[in-house]
Amino acid sequence: TLTKADFLKMITIREVTYTVIQVIKRPIYHYSYYIGQIVYFSPTSNRHPNTYMTYLSPATAALIMYLDQAS
Asked: Within 1-71, where are the H helices?
């Protein structure tokens, strides 16, 4: 368990010194950067311009195709 005082302690990673707060923030920034890239590059073709690529189960994909044909 971290105490308030622990957040200001210094930690060295790969010969660079960071505070505990910086060490906690670092992977959050890293992951959010890649999530932003995924969101940015995910729009599909012009057929469905407001949708995004996802990995669907075959049953869900079939339901979407059925609903597309019905409309």
From this structure: 20-41, 58-70
Using one digit for the tens of pLDDT, what is the confidence trace for 25-50?
Answer: 988 888 888 888 777 766 654 455 55
Q: Is the pTM of this model over 0.70?
A: no
C-alpha to C-alpha distance for 62 and 37, rounded to whole angstroms: 28
32 touches 21 (CB < 8 A):
no
CB-CB neighbours of 23 under 10 Å: 14
3-state secondary structure 15-34: CEEEEHHHHHHHHHHHHHHH
